[in-house]
Amino acid sequence: MNPRKEPIFDAPIPGQSLTGELGSKPWEQPPKLVTVNEVIESYMPVFEDKAMVSEILNQLESGIPIIPIVNILIKAGVMDGDHTIDTGLLAAPVLIEMLINVAEASDVKYTVGNKIKKSVEPSMSAIALALRDFDVASEEETTLEEEIVEASPMEPPVEPSMGLMTKRGEEDGI
Amino acid sequence: MSQHIIKMYNSIDAQIRKAPTDTSAKSNGLIPKRENSDEDTDIIHYIKQLRKMREGNNEST
Predict the structure, then answer these.
(1) Which positions in chain B touch A71 (Cβ < 8 Å)?
(2) For B41-58, how does the pLDDT look when each residue is reduced to its tens digit (9 = 90+)?
(3) How much is the ipTM here?
(4) What secondary structure letter does DSSP report for A107?
(5) Is-above-0.80 flag for pTM?
(6) Which of B12, B4, B48, B36 minimizes the C-alpha distance to A86?
(7) Residues near A39 by Cβ (< 8 Å), separated by ≥ 6?
(8) Do A74 and B1 touch (CB under 8 A)?
(9) CA distances from A167 to A117, A157, A162, A171, A174 (A)
(10) What phi, psi does A67 have (nearest 5°)?
């Protein structure tokens, strides 16, 4: 079921991204950094910036795994046209290890996020959504039952008239 | 994309953890077997160095 009731009118029109001039976006240009070594070197200033490191550590402390953070870093690099998504992906394990080193050096508890959960527990939002759907369904059922009860009140069965003018065939069912 | 990163990280992690084998490329024919690309070996080298650094830091503390 779609939880969103109202349609979105401020969404981009399908194909809108193709209306721009080819090469107008940074990621449509040739990448500035070509090799994996260059990509890894380009991310080193991130780990030297104290403000950036403290922000990342805050994120790790709040329970966000390392892999989504690296994912954001790589996507930002691709959006800026620094490197392609392939070289970013190749550089990702090194960035993960760098972040692990940073977290351990500053005694911050972290999770890498590379373990795939076998028993997926439903999140609180999923439970709330399911409960809301259940409430709506039970309300609909109760209204339907009420309508059925109202539509068919208990009426006594109509007995066939046994008057003098009735035909014999009708009485006997012939 | 996170899934791709997880796969990449796990495969490299497994590659590093497994026992070192004979790395020389054997070939029976005229065409030699392909070795790992330089980029792959670079990444593994970087990760090994970073883990060594981490272990050194942990031992010192």
Answers:
(1) 1-2, 5
(2) 788 888 888 888 888 887
(3) 0.73
(4) T
(5) no
(6) B4
(7) A33, A77, A82, A83, A87, A88, A90, A91
(8) yes
(9) 79, 21, 10, 7, 10
(10) -60, -45
